[in-house]
């Protein structure tokens, strides 16, 4: 049934709807918000009646500031700020950015209708709480993508020793050693966004294939995924670990024979042979085909991997006792892998960072998008990392597994009667 309302009644209904929408918007803006920095949470009060309050003149400023918006960033806001000589550099939860001001008054930015709060990005905001206040520290430093060549050169010279500089589209990474005074100077630089301890990667553990690929409850058979035809054929996986078997494709173990395409080794290592066994174990879990046909006491096949048709690219990055020999620039790993034909990188190692998103995670997140910056266009690459051995519990995820673009692999249960626990 259609009901025709008088014009006056329609106007009143429209006014009520507009009023409700306005009140709802004001209610959202009046709620407290926060800016969640790594080492501080800043509560930002609502901008109440700002247009009615007398404006205090502020001198133009150049440097890093925090800018929080009322809502998620819109492209038009970014462009308006850019016209005011404000560049948004790095996102910070919630709805905030570290921004580079170039001779602009903070008050001018603060008065924009879509801006909620503006404040200085101070030196102490850039320092990881794990950094030592005494003695020298080995650090990684994230530079602003706005940093000039001159600023980057000054920062390189300001380190006691420079280990390496990694170039990323979102800002370069410096790694080296600093004194307490040098650490303070780095934090004071407008070209520096964040400083944290250098990572300490270590080897981690893996689990068996039928838990991952599905068990048909019959001993000596393939996984369910393999029986459905998903056996990794046509796919190459790069395994960055302790090496593989004897490091020689011609005399490779039968379970992997004919499917190892390339060997790499890094740092002070002299070959890709596995002197530890971790890398061989992990590679077998990925691509072993159980060619020997040897069963365990329950009839399950030894050497059956998840993808027995896959090919392998070996990248030895750990020595005989588990010390890492990872290249300083992690793009060396991903570049070598994709140029050798790999589309997936398996990494059963990490650094116990108590769940923090650190610069290692940041670096590998970027490498997922482009594994080889020297080749035109993006070269996407799937990166998998072990979740770690620190669990179970909150904040136990390792880095780089804590990254947003990588795949983190955790542990599961086991049906083996001889094992009633697994490393986490």
Key descriptive features of the protein:
disordered C terminus; alpha/beta; Rossmann fold; 10 helices; single chain; 3 domains; Alpha-Beta Plaits; 23% strand
Structure description:
- This protein has 424 residues and is α/β, with parallel strands linked by helices.
- The protein folds into 3 domains: 60-121, Alpha-Beta Plaits (2-Layer Sandwich); 126-197, 2-Layer Sandwich (Alpha-Beta Plaits), CATH 3.30.70; 202-409, Peptidase S8/S53 domain (Rossmann fold, 3-Layer(aba) Sandwich).
- The protein is 23% helix and 23% strand.
- The protein has 10 helices and 18 strands.
- The protein has helices at 7-30, 75-83, 106-110, 149-158, 180-188, 209-213, 224-227, 278-287, 331-339, 359-369; strands at 33-36, 41-44, 61-69, 86-92, 96-104, 115-120, 137-143, 161-166, 173-178, 192-197, 202-203, 236-241, 260-265, 311-316, 344-347, 349-350, 382-386, 407-409.
- The strands form 5 sheets. It has a 6-stranded parallel beta sheet, with helices on both faces.
- β13, α8 and β14 (311-316) form a beta-alpha-beta unit.
- The longest helix has 24 residues, at 7-30.
- It is elongated.
- The relative contact order is 0.10.
- Residues 21-25 and 416-424 have low confidence and may be disordered.
